[in-house]
Amino acid sequence: MRSRRLADLLAGLDHQAEDDLATLVISSITADSRQVAPGSLFVAVAGASVDGHDYLGQAVAAGALAVVVNKRSPVVDLGVPQIRVADTATLIGTLAAAFYGNPAAKMTVVGITGTNGKTTCAYLLEEVVAAAGGRPGVVGTVNFRFPGFCRPASHTTPDAVQLHALLAEMVSAGVTHLIMEVSSHALQQERVAGIHFDAVLFTNLSQDHLDFHGDMERYFATKKRLFSRHLKSGGLAVIVTEGSASWGGRLVEALRAERELNIITCGPGQMIASQDEQVSLAGIKMVVDLQGTEAMFTSPLVGAFNIRNILGVIGVARGLEISVPAMQGALAHCPGAPGRMERVQLLGVAHPTIIVDYAHTPDALKNVLETIKPLTPGRLWVVFGCGGNRDRGKRPMMGAIAVHYADVAIVTSDNPRNEEPLRILAEIEAGMQQGGGKRVEVDFLTGQGKEYLVIESRQQAIACAVHLAQRNDVVLISGKGHEDYQLTRSGKVHFDDRLAAKQELEKVWGQAGGAA
Question: 382 and 372 in contact (C-beta within 8 Å)?
Fold first, then answer.
């Protein structure tokens, strides 16, 4: 059981308190009134849908010794000390860091942000750090993990108190390098407050989460916070960019004008660039220019877009002074993240190539399909959908992309959440029709291109693709990747694209090998 003097936690922080805090010792910090226990410090944070200030009474009744509130909140007699601050959402991370002994300061902390590629880069960098003799810990979309510990992630970046508690566990386990995926939601909601990053990688920016941010400029500004507010002075900023007109290029120019940072750019014509790239369904082989030194790199990852992810990781490793042989060895065998261009296979059986990928944005879907199309000897199938209660603007865009690249597209449910699934499918279908797509029924499918099917059940959609595809075809199942569930009006139900695809492969191709 931890305990800290409240006055020590508040030392140096701008706050107001009418009560004497010198003798108060707290045993925990929380922003959730349901988690308050005797001896807790309750921090009232105003969230998007719930305001902690409405639960001050419940927190005190549950045993809170003191509460932290925003200065603008009404004065109410609660019978316990009240600490007033300018912004509780920002302060809670700083308090949590102090409560847990500032664990982030005891590790090399690397943040990864961007619309796509965060998880893949985290897995790659984890392997690279381990190959160099480090002991990595990861906070990411798939799970939170370090040697001897792994827990599924509920959010890409947990709330500030959970995060600092987790980092304290990592320090106790001897973790030397913390690798953290940092979402735009986490930045907007100040979940990484109290953490000062040694290095940050920017992968890319494309349309997503506009239901939350409003537009791309606000989305970009939120991502930029990781560099402008949370990266140490003189820290390492690694930015994947395709030139000054790209979001990465804009970020480089803005940071150079604002701060003293060590900036490494990655991509075509940049400080770290690739040449002689060979991309196939077996992986990637390329020569990388490391600021004057050339080295050969290979990777089992599939897709030209993964070249950018690899270059970004090389940039971080270079900035952290990790040797080229350690990078080469780690990248050569790391399969990447679960559910990212992951093959589903039956051993010893020839069958269609089945690939499961997390691509759930227009840019990510386009990248994956552009990569797979020239590598497909037969027809290219795509099974995909869009999540409910999320950015509706991307739905027709993804529909148009699907019919443009795939020979056959099957639009189906993703995570409909509380939305009517058929409405989501109709909004995707509108883009498919605008893109010249033709809706057909299974019996009238020709496979000649720009045809699409609408099958609401994801299980049935996957089964349809696997049953109809031939040996030289490629089936991309996109949108959910590593997720082993669907979020529906009825709640969370178990569903794994990889398992569903493998079961259908066994039915059709596992016995006699299937049709020619």
Answer: no
Give the SS3 label for residue 199: strand
Mean of per-residue pLDDT scores for the chain: 93
> What tokens appear for 17 in the block?
């308190």
In one letter, which amino acid is 429? Answer: E
User: Taking the complete model, does pTM exceed 0.85, yes or no?
Assistant: no
Tokens of 126: 């984890």
Which domains, ranges and CATH numbers included, belong to the chain?
4-99 (3.40.1390.10), 103-333 (3.40.1190.10), 342-509 (3.90.190.20)
The pLDDT value given to residue 515: 42
Q: Using pLDDT thresholds of 50, 70 and 90, give the confidence band for residue 156.
A: low
Q: How far apart are the C-alpha atoms of 357 and 412, rounded to whole Å? A: 15
Share of the chain above pLDDT 90, in %: 80
| Cα–Cα distance measured from residue 110 to residue 196, given in angstroms and rounded to the nearest whole number | 9
pLDDT in tens, 29-58: 999 999 999 999 999 998 877 899 999 999
Instruction: Indicate if the pLDDT at residue 210 is higher than 70.
Output: no
* Contact residues for 32 (Cβ-Cβ < 8 A; gap 6+): none
- The sign of the CA dihedral 391, 397, 399, 401 is negative
What's the confidence (pLDDT) of residue 140? 92
Do the Cβ atoms of 232 and 104 come closer than 8 Å?
Answer: no
Selection from 424, 396, 393 nearest residue 215 by Cα: 393
Give residue 447's Cα distance to chain centre.
34
The conformation of residue 267, written as its DSSP 8-state character, comes to S
Owner of token pair 């604002």: 258
**Ramachandran bin of 63, using left for φ above 0, alpha for ψ from -120 to 50, beta for the remaining angles:** left
Q: What's the rounded Cα separation, in Å, for the pair 94 and 481?
A: 34
**pLDDT score, position 516:** 38
Per residue in 373-425, pLDDT (tens digit) is 999 999 999 999 999 998 899 999 999 999 999 999 999 999 999 999 999 99
Who contacts 214 (Cβ-Cβ below 8 Å, separation ≥6)? Answer: none
pLDDT (tens digit, 9 = 90+) per residue, 428-455? 999 999 999 999 999 999 988 899 999 9
Among candidates 99, 96, 69, 64, which has minimal Cα distance to 82?
A: 69
Pairing of strands 149-152, 177-181: unpaired
Amino acid identity of residue 132, one-letter, is A
Number of helices (H) and strands (E) in the chain: give both, helices first. Answer: 16, 27
Rg (CA), the chain: 25
Beta strands 82-85 and 66-70 are parallel
* Helical segments of 100-205, H only: 118-131, 160-172, 184-188
Query: Tell me, what amino acid is at 250?
Result: R
By the 10 Å C-beta count (0-12 exposed, 13-18 middle, 19+ buried), 73 is classed as middle
Distance CA 269, CA 242 (A): 8
